[in-house]
Every structure is written in structure tokens, then in C-alpha cells.
Write a structure and sequence with these properties.
The protein is α/β, with parallel strands linked by helices. It is built from 17 helices and 12 strands. Strands 1, 2, 3, 6, 9, 10, 11 and 12 form an 8-stranded mixed β-sheet that branches. A two-stranded antiparallel ribbon has the order 4-5. The protein starts with a helix and ends with a helix.
């Protein structure tokens, strides 16, 4: 009888302790085994040891099921306190009243200044809604051997727009009036054109939209950026007006048909695998500046649900999961780019000079703007940029017409 009584007391205490904890539910996007192991076996126990009054309940949702599961969960009032998604989803969640702004929480994060420019990708209507966790970026890649043979210092990349054009002219090769090697491989159509041109817009102190989601890309800064972009193709003739295509499975910079390109880390990794000889000649540099530098980065990160029951506990979990140490563990498991500048010290980054450059370049990051109608706006902008590149519209007319159409989406 005494033994039964003792067991009952122990079980009662365990139940009491369990009920005395605050639950914080976190949904991660993706199901890589290495990620689950790093979080379940490392981060969760460490957090709960430091916060014995909080229990972290972590779930892993496949990317393809994420949006549907979130919609269903929030509709049923059982959504997570913190969840991961891509930055382009922010505006939709805000407009649907799902997430809260985290302006008041940023100061409680571990060294928020260490994020550099990456916190800015989570701004919507002037407020922060997103803490980046992992991502990919786009930097300027160039061939050191082509620089050297053209009389340029292979260790000195262009740092201004003027230098970018001059360097591109120096490494462009033509034969019988035909360009056989473009000084610069820049896109001339589609989403890639929009992304790369936007870098020039932002480097010229321009912006795609204002805080009220009115298009501002047709400002004088935008027109000048597009004039410069088109000029590289049609006047300086350092880039192909038809665009460059891969040679087999080799990107133009690896195949030798381009000397410079704005390249993401995934494409560079492919060159490393398929063409190690060409890869050994590729160097990375931060994008050249007009008034500022700007490189396109895309991130997945955490958002905080408006329905969270205990904001203090949720904030502690958010701060822990996005701390320097936690993000290094997460990104090491995924092999992805840490959004913090200190991530360059992670072993898997420090041992790869290219990845280290991409991490350091995140301080110049810009991303797709957080507007609910972004996909439609993006396609409209790209269509009119193409017309300017083809020479059928002036840069000003193209941007003005694009702005006129995009304004109707609001």
C-alpha cells in the first residue's frame, strides 16, 4: 500500500511539473535528417535546460505541405507560436492577420546588429515581421585568368559602376564583329533580369516600393539604373542582348563565354563539381556600388503568430533559436548560408572561402519586397525591363508603364 501511495505521489508531482510549464510550439520548414538531429538532440535540450519553465514542441513540415498546414492550423485555432517560411510569404500572412510585427522584440535577440542587412528582408509596411534563419545569395563572380590576360589585376575586382563597365570592356573578346566572350553575363529576360536590375536600382539609392506599397522603381534613380543596365548591352557592348546560355552543363563563366556574372552560391557549387579547372580561376567580389552595394539574397526564417499565448516565452524561444550559436548549428546541418555575419566563423564556412564571401556579403542583402501582389508585380516589371533591353522602349517609358500597371494591383 505504501509503495502504491509513493508511486501516486511521484506521478502527481510529474503531472504538476508538466502542467506548470509553458508550451511553445515551433514549426520548421523541411525535413532533412541532419536538421532534425541538430534541433531535437542539441538545441531543444539546451533551451529547456536554461528555461526549465518552458517546453519546446518542435514539428518539421515538408515545404510542399507548409502553406496548407499553416492555413488549416490557424483556421482551427491551433497554429504554432513560431513558424518558418520564405520571406516572400510575409505580406500575405500580415494581410491575413496571422503574424505580429516583431519591432519590440528585436532588441531582445542575440546581437541583432550581427544580422547586417538581412533583417531588412523582413520589413513590410515599415515594420519587421521576420528573423532570417538560412538563405542563398548572389555576388559578382569573375575569372582571374581573363583579368590577368587583359592587363587587369586578378586580385582587384570592380567596386564602382564605372569600373564594372571599364573592366567588362577590357575582358570582352570579339572576332569578326561577333562577341566570343562577354565581359559581363547579365540576364535579359524574366525573373533573373528583374532580380539583377533591382540590385542596380538599390545601389543607386532607389527602391521598388514605398511603405504604402506604391511603386517607386520609376524614380530618377530607377531610370538611371536601367539606362546604365541597358547601356552595358547596347552601347558598351560588354553583354549579349540575347543572353548567354550554358554550354552543356557548364555556365557561361565556366565555359569561357563570359568573364563576369552575378552568381548565386548554388550555381558556383555546381561549377565546382562539373568544372574544377574553371572553378579554380573564379573569384568572388561584392557587387559594385553607385551610392551603396546591393546583392540579392533570399531567406527562410521565423515569424511569430499573433495567436501566441505567452509572448514572453515565445520571445525567449525565438531569441535562442536565432542566436549566433543556434544558427551556426542549423546552417551547418543544412549546408546553407547563415544570415549572421558571425556565421563566417562556422567551420564549414571558414573552410570554404566562397561561402565565407557569401556570408560576409549578406550585409549588403536585399530581397524580394514584401507586398501581397509581388508575383504579379514582378512579372510586369520583368516584361517592361525586357522591352527596354530590346530597345523597343526607352528606360523611362518602360518603367513608367510598368509602374502604371503595377499601381492597379493594390
Amino acid at each position: 500500500m505504501r509503495k502504491v501511495t509513493l508511486i501516486f505521489i511521484v506521478l502527481s508531482l510529474l503531472v504538476f511539473v508538466g502542467f506548470g510549464k509553458t508550451n511553445v510550439t515551433v514549426w520548421f520548414a523541411g525535413t532533412p535528417e541532419a536538421l532534425m538531429e541538430a534541433v531535437d538532440d542539441g538545441l531543444v535540450p539546451a533551451f529547456e535546460q536554461s528555461n526549465p519553465d518552458i517546453k519546446l514542441i518542435v514539428e518539421y513540415i515538408p515545404w510542399g505541405e507548409l502553406s496548407t498546414k499553416l492555413t488549416t492550423a490557424f483556421a482551427g485555432g491551433i497554429g504554432p507560436d513560431i513558424f518558418m517560411h520564405g520571406q516572400a510569404a510575409i505580406a500575405g500572412f500580415v494581410e491575413n492577420g496571422v503574424i505580429m510585427d516583431i519591432d519590440s522584440l528585436i532588441a531582445k535577440l542575440d546581437d541583432p546588429s550581427d544580422f547586417g542587412g538581412t533583417l531588412g528582408v523582413g520589413i513590410y509596411r515599415g515594420k519587421h515581421y521576420f528573423v532570417p534563419v538560412f538563405g542563398s545569395g548572389r555576388l559578382l563572380a569573375y575569372r582571374a585568368d581573363y583579368f590577368a590576360e587583359s592587363g587587369l589585376d586578378p586580385d582587384e575586382a570592380p567596386v564602382t559602376w564605372e569600373q564594372l563597365q571599364a573592366f567588362a570592356q577590357a575582358v570582352t573578346v570579339t572576332s569578326a564583329g561577333r562577341m566570343t566572350r562577354a565581359g559581363l553575363d547579365i540576364p535579359v529576360s524574366g525573373i533573373d533580369l528583374q532580380q539583377v536590375w533591382t540590385g542596380f536600382l538599390i545601389a543607386n539609392n532607389g527602391a521598388l516600393f514605398d511603405d504604402d506599397l506604391n511603386p517607386t522603381f520609376n524614380s530618377p534613380a530607377g531610370v538611371e539604373a536601367l539606362e546604365y543596365y541597358v547601356g552595358l548591352i547596347r552601347e558598351a557592348k560588354v553583354a549579349s542582348e540575347f543572353g548567354l546560355t550554358p554550354v552543356g552543363n557548364l555556365a557561361p563563366i565556366a565555359a569561357g563565354t563570359a568573364a563576369m556574372v552575378f552568381m548565386n552560391n548554388e550555381s558556383l557549387a555546381a561549377i565546382k563539381s562539373y568544372s574544377p579547372e574553371a572553378y579554380s580561376q573564379i573569384r568572388l567580389a561584392f557587387p559594385p556600388a553607385r551610392y551603396a552595394r546591393a546583392g540579392f539574397y533570399s531567406f527562410a526564417g521565423f515569424m511569430v503568430a499573433k495567436s501566441t499565448k505567452n509572448l514572453e516565452a515565445t520571445t525567449k524561444a525565438l531569441a535562442f533559436l536565432t542566436s549566433k550559436d543556434s544558427l551556426i548549428k542549423i546552417n551547418t546541418a543544412l549546408g546553407s548560408l547563415p544570415p549572421r555575419q558571425s556565421g563566417a566563423q562556422a567551420e564549414f564556412i571558414a573552410n570554404d572561402p566562397d561561402l565565407k564571401m557569401f556570408v560576409e556579403g549578406a550585409k549588403y542583402a536585399y530581397g524580394n519586397p514584401n507586398v501581397p501582389f509581388w508575383v504579379q508585380a514582378r512579372d510586369i516589371i520583368a516584361r517592361y525591363l525586357e522591352r527596354a533591353v530590346m530597345g523597343v522602349m526607352t528606360p523611362k517609358d518602360a518603367l513608367d508603364k510598368a509602374a502604371e500597371e503595377v499601381s492597379k494591383l493594390k
